[in-house]
Amino acid sequence: MEFFLVALAVFLFCFILTRVILRPLLALLRTPWSMRPNYKGKEIPVGAGAVFLLALLPTAFLGFVAAPGYLDDRLVLSFLFLMAVTTLVGIIDDVLGARKVTGLKGHFGRLLRGELTTGGLKALAIALGSLVVFAGTVDIWEALLNATLVSLFVNALNMFDLRPGRAGKVFLVTALAVTLAAWKEQNLVPMWAVGGSLLALFPLDLRAKAMMGDAGANTLGAALGLTIAWTVGINTRLGILAALLILHLLAERYSFTKIIAGNRILNFLDLLGRRE
Q1: Backbone angles phi, psi at 46, to 5 degrees
Q2: How many CB atoms lie within 10 A of CB 19?
Q3: What's the CA gap between 217 and 172, in Å, rounded?
Q4: Rounded to a whole number, what is the distance in angstroms from the first to the last CA of the chain?
Q5: For residue range 106-140, what is the model confidence (pLDDT) as tens digits?
Q6: What is the largest CA-CA distance in the chain?
Q7: Per-domain residue ranges for the chain?
Q8: Can you tell me the distance from the alpha carbon of 150 to that of 148, in angstroms, rounded to the nearest whole number?
Q9: Which residues on adjacent β-strands are paired with residue 45?
Q10: Which of 49, 263, 264, 276 has its CA 20 to 30 A from that of 92?
Q11: How far is 225 from 146, CA to CA, in rounded Å?
């Protein structure tokens, strides 16, 4: 019961705080440098997902003050560090990124030819940031496994963030599955802080009033990757890694948007709540 109450309190606090922050943040984003056409060509603010980090910081401070010692301080600070890295490189990609190069294959192909894209910068920064988080806490091979999981989750959420609300739905379904698999693990709490913030942004995302952008999708993916690395066994992590690798290989050959549109159940879930 204690775990549930703490998780619920953090979830609700992040939800309320995000609602408060969103209005001034969106006013800031309604400038030429942060307006982008969505898939229908409508110009809307991008980078609204930066609100996740802005809500996490005061939530973490309040947690340290109100419940000292409940969560491991190093874990919380590591979580915030990686959320800051993913948000920063996400904003860079949202504002400066070109959409001519897509996918890990495209970005790393350019990198091997000596050209650094914003997508390549994002991938390198998140991979290295993840290694920093896990360094010294587990052996080198497990640190590499965990960092790879985080990086692939970040890219997977970006792949799904092509229609309003899609990445958020993927996050919520995956977060629920992780919670059921690792129920009462205290390390689940930071992920549900992000979940509360996401639900506050969700109505704007579903109505195509704002795009969370890479600044948001990166954070959602990193939150899932970190939480899984901290809460499930290594064999489960290896299985998830295999599933993510297959997902990325399929993404290089097929359009997930077409697959979703062609499946009645997936299309219903994809359209659920959308009012564009």
Answers
A1: -115, 155
A2: 16
A3: 12
A4: 40
A5: 555 555 666 677 778 888 999 999 999 999 888 99
A6: 55
A7: 2-271
A8: 5
A9: 35
A10: 276
A11: 8
pLDDT in tens, 233-253: 999 999 999 999 999 999 988
Angle at 90 between CA 205 and CA 132, to 5 degrees: 130
162-182 residue pLDDT tens: 999 999 999 999 999 999 998
Residue listed under structure tokens 């990198």: 111
Least confident among 147-151, 219-223, 234-238, 247-251: 247-251
pTM: 0.92
Q: What is the DSSP letter of 176?
A: H
Distance CA 109, CA 247 (A): 19
Question: What distance in Å separates the CA atoms of residue 46 and residue 59, rounded to the nearest whole number?
Answer: 24
Spatial distance between the Cα atoms of 179 and 98, rounded to a whole number of angstroms: 36
| Dist CA 199 CA 181 (whole Å) | 22
User: 256-267: per-residue pLDDT in tens?
Assistant: 999 999 999 999
One-letter amino acid for residue 132 of the chain: V
Ramachandran class of 180: left when φ > 0, alpha when ψ lies in -120 to 50, beta otherwise: alpha
Asked if 18 and 210 touch (Cβ cutoff 8 Å), the reply is no
Q: What are phi and psi of 211, to 5 degrees?
A: -105, 135
